[in-house]
Structures are given as C-alpha cells and as structure tokens.
Design a protein that fits this description.
The protein is α+β, with helices and mostly antiparallel strands and about 350 residues long. The chain has 13 helices and 13 strands. The strands form three sheets. The chain has a five-stranded antiparallel beta sheet with strand order 9-10-13-12-11, covered by helices on one side. The relative contact order is 0.06.
C-alpha cells in the first residue's frame, strides 16, 4: 500500500506539472502544486480514510480483490524493501517491541467512548481492569474498628447471636485480642453443627489467609482463589490487624458496589443542595477528588479514606462542628463516632472553580 501510494502521488504530481507548464507556461509549476495538493488531500487522503473508518468492514471487502492484485505485482519491491529493513535493524539496534503504554490505552478507550464505539459502562469496566493491579488492599479493606468478630473461647451462643444480628456469612475468630485473628467460621458450618451441644468455636474454624496492606488487589485475588477462601486478614508491618478483605471487596473494584438483599444501601456521596454534599468518611479520598474536579496528590498525605483526609487537615480528633477550608471547599464535620469522623458536609464556594455535578 505504501509503495503504491507513493507511486501514484509522484506520477500524478509529475504529469500535472508537465501539463500545466505546457498550458500556462512558467506559472504552471505553482498552479500544479496547489491543484495536486488539494486533490491528494481530498480524494487521496481525507475521503477514502474517512469512508474506511466509518464503513471499515464493507470498505475492506470492496477493495480486497484489487489489493490482492497489487500484492502480487509489487512482491519483488516488497522483498527488496524487507531486506533494506533488516539492514537498518542491524545498523540501528533499537527496541523491537511495539509496546502500547497504559496511558495510550486509556486515551484509546476515552476516544472510543466519546465517539460512541463503546458504551460508557464498558469504558468504565476497561479502566477498572487497567487500574486493578495498581490498587493496594489498604484502599478496599474493612478497617479494624468495623470488624465484627468473636474470641475463640466465647460461648457458642455468642457466635449464634452475632450471626443472627449482623446476618454475615462469615465471622472472624481471634485469640485474646483482635490483633491475632486465627480463623473464620462459616455460617453454613455453624448451623449444620449447631445441634451438637458440645461444639466449640474452635471446632468450626477454617484457616484464614494473612495479607499485608501494601499487597496488590490482583495478587490477593489469586491467593484467595488458590486457598479457596473468601476472606483474609490484613496486617501492618508490626503484625497487628489493620482490617479484613473479602472476595466481594475485590470484585467491587472491578464492577462497582454489589448489594444483596441483606445490605443496607448507603450513598457515599449525597448531593443535598446546589453546592452542598454529604459525604461518608469511609469513601475513598481519590473518588472525592474526582467528584470535585481536584487533582489527587498521593504525596500530600498518608491516607486513603476521607476520614484520614479530615484528620490530616484538622490535626486532632474531630468533633461535630469542626471545620476547615481546602481550595474551593468548605468542610464541616457533621457526625462522629467515639474517636473517628463518620460524616462531613462539603460546600463548594461559588466564586471558585465550577462545581462538578454528581449523579446520584
């Protein structure tokens, strides 16, 4: 194609120059250049490429016969140029791999979505898959303070009470303190053996994998699959419990929130006014930045959730009514629980950057 394209352009330009020179004299070269440039751009570049892009399959089927003819005719030339290419590769040894970077792939997805080639939800799924291996467990885990667990020496009635109250399918089991989670009890195993009045919690326990908070989500998923487990305990550098992570938490990184019939559906970002939002402090800080159109800087502070972001700026244990300003945002603490912040209200200053609308 490249050989044929160049032959046609060169021959056409040469013939046109001779023709216009004979017709109008010395000015023929200038006129020929202008005319041929316009013709090549419109009929040789823009039109066929636009048609081929819009009707790629039908265009290819219509031209493949002619292309096969030229493949045969130009085979000797292709052979010569392939030898020339090999000589260049030996002279200029470079990276032979034609690698598409993650940023380029993201751009391709954005362009395909904007042109309507793929649906918005498909684009979001592709982006989630691409970011999947960059996400650490610290971003998706259930924090230590929210863990519902039992001690291995607790009475079996205590375990039954927790299963009925919280309707969880799995309950972690710890030894002495929550820092030493040693196993997990499945609801199915519990009820199948509940008739045995001498049963102990330790008799019902299954092993639980232990991960570090810096482990990538993809690696954690593979290890859970290999262990045939759905829950793991996440520990810090000192071996203390940071939280727990489940297979559902990992899958939600790909497809979004998964609600079942027993879940209390909550909104992490709720618009309550033209420029006001109520935000759950369990939300990921990066998602809040995206909501307000702010640039997220990971070096700004060592936190993942909105709760950590609030603590970073308040520099103290928050109380209801505490407030601070961040860029074009006015942040007010609206709900706390013991020693942590649960909910905040964010107001966008109208005289600053444009507000970014959020679809509820």
């Amino acid at each position: 194609i490249l050989i044929g394209n160049n032959i046609v352009n060169i021959v056409m330009a040469s013939i046109a120059t001779i023709l216009f020179t004979k017709l109008i004299g010395n000015n023929g070269v200038t006129v020929s250049t202008i005319v041929i440039t316009v013709i090549v751009l419109i009929f040789g570049e823009i039109t066929p490429k636009s048609l081929a892009k819009e009707y790629s399959e039908s265009f290819a089927m219509a031209t493949i016969g002619l292309l096969k003819v030229f493949l045969v005719i130009l085979t000797p030339f292709n052979f010569i140029f392939s030898l020339w290419k090999k000589l260049l590769e030996k002279l200029f040894k470079g990276d032979k791999s034609d690698i598409v970077t993650e940023e380029e792939l993201m751009t391709i997805v954005d362009e395909a979505q904007s042109e309507g080639s793929i649906e918005e939800q498909d684009g979001e799924l592709i982006r989630s898959v691409m970011e999947f291996n960059d996400t650490e467990l610290s971003r998706i885990l259930t924090p230590r303070v929210d863990i519902i667990a039992v001690e291995e020496n607790d009475e079996i009635e205590e375990l039954e009470k927790i299963f009925k109250e919280y309707e969880f399918s799995r309950i972690p089991v710890y030894r002495e303190t929550i820092d030493t989670i040693i196993g997990v009890v499945h609801e199915k195993d519990f009820y199948s053996k509940l008739s045995n009045k001498y049963i102990k919690i330790s008799d019902l326990m299954n092993d639980i994998p232990v991960f570090t908070e810096s482990m990538k989500v993809y690696n954690a998923m593979r290890l859970l699959q290999k262990a045939k487990a759905h829950m793991a305990v996440v520990v810090d550098e000192f071996g203390g419990t940071v939280g727990i992570v489940t297979m559902e938490d990992i899958l939600e990184e790909l497809v979004g929130e998964i609600w079942d019939e027993h879940d209390d559906i909550t909104q992490e970002f709720k618009k309550v006014g033209k420029n006001s939002y109520i935000i759950s402090c369990n939300a990921v800080c990066e998602e809040m930045y995206e909501l307000f159109g702010l640039d997220y800087d990971e070096d700004e502070g060592d936190y993942v959730t909105v709760s950590g972001w609030v603590l970073h700026h308040l520099k103290k244990i928050p109380c209801v009514g505490d407030s601070f300003e961040y860029k074009n945002l006015e942040v007010t603490v609206t709900k706390t629980d013991s020693r942590r912040v649960v909910e905040i209200k964010v107001d966008i200053k109208e005289n600053e950057d444009k507000e970014k609308d959020f679809s509820e």
